[in-house]
C-alpha cells in the first residue's frame, strides 16, 4: 500500500512501445479489410447441374409418359372382350374347319352304307322296297347323330377352353388396371428429378442472398474483434507531485525503505489492474489527508490509512515466513478484490476510448 501528498495525481495507460507497431499494423489491416469488398461469394455454381444426356433423358421420359403406352389400351380391350365372353357369343370362326374332317368321315360312311344297301337290295330283287327304304332311313339317322355328336364335342371343348381364358383374364385384370399408373409414375419420377435440380439452383441463389445479407455484420464483427482483441501490453504510470505513491507513503508514515521494498516486491507479480485500482481509490485519499491545513478529519484519515498500511505490510512479510497477520489478512481480503475490480473497469474504459 502506498500514497503521496501535494499536487495533482494522474494515471495514464498506453500500449507497450515494443508492441505498438504491430498493433497499429494489425488494426490498419483490419480497417482496410473491413472497407474492402472481401469476402466475396464463389462466382461459379455451387452445385452440379444436369448434363446434356440427363436433360435429354428427362425430356424423353416426360414425352413418353405423356404419350402413354400404345400397347396398353389394346391389351386392356382384348382382356375386356375375353372377360365379357365376346368369344363365346360370337362363335369360333375356325369351328367349322375343325368339324369338317369328322363330318367328311361320317358322310363317307353314310354313302358307303347306302351303296352297299342298294347293291344287296338289287341282287335280292327288292330294290325300292319298303325294307330298303327303312334301312336307308336308319342310315340317315346314324349320319345325323354322328355329325351332331361330333359338333357337340367340339363345341364343348371350345367353350371349356374359352372359359379357362376368361378365368385367366380375370386374374390378370388387376395388373392391367395398375399398368395405367406406370406412365403416371414415370412422369412423376421425371418431374421429381427435374425439381431436384431446380431445388439446387434455388439453394445456390438463397445462399448467395444470405451471404450478402450477413456480409456487413460478419465484417463488422471481425473488425471489432480485431480492435477489442489487440494485445494490452500496457504500461501504467502514476505521479503525485513528482513522487511515486509508495515513496510518498513511506516518507509520510516514516516506514523507511524496508517496507517500501516489501511493497514493491509484492506488487511486481500482481495483475496491472490491482495497481490501477489502487491508485484510483487511494490517490484521492492521500491527496485529501496530506494537503492543506491539518484538521481532525484529516488526522483521523491519516491514522486509519497508517493502521491499514502497517498491518497489510506485516501480513505480506509474515506470509513469506509461514505466518500471517490477522488484521492484515482481513484488510487485504477486502481491499485487494475491490482494487482489482476498479482497475479492470478503468482499463476497459481506457481501451474503449
What is the ordering of alpha helices and beta strands?
EHHHHHHHEHHHHH
| Strand-residue proportion | under 5%
Radius of gyration using CA atoms only: 60 Å
Report the average pLDDT across residues: 75
Tell me the number of strands.
2
Low-confidence stretches: 1-11, 233-245
Give the helix/strand class.
mainly alpha
The biggest sheet amounts to:
2 strands, antiparallel
Give the strand line-up of the largest sheet.
1-2
Alpha plus pi helix count: 12
- How many angstroms separate the termini? 29 Å
Shape: rod-shaped
- Helix % is over 70%
Q: Please, could you describe this protein's structure?
A:
The longest helix has 49 residues, at 130-178. This protein has helices at residues 20-35, 52-67, 71-84, 86-89, 95-123, 130-178, 180-228, 245-253, 256-267, 272-289, 296-319, 326-352; strands spanning 9-15, 234-240. Among the domains are: 9-18 and 234-352, no CATH class; 70-178. Helix 3 packs across helix 6 (130-178) and helix 10 (272-289) packs across helix 12 (326-352). It starts with 8 loop residues before the first strand and ends with a helix. A two-stranded antiparallel ribbon has the order 1-2. With 353 residues, it is mainly alpha-helical.
Summarize the structure.
The chain is mainly alpha-helical and 353 residues long. It is built from twelve helices and two strands. The chain starts with 8 loop residues before the first strand and ends with a helix.
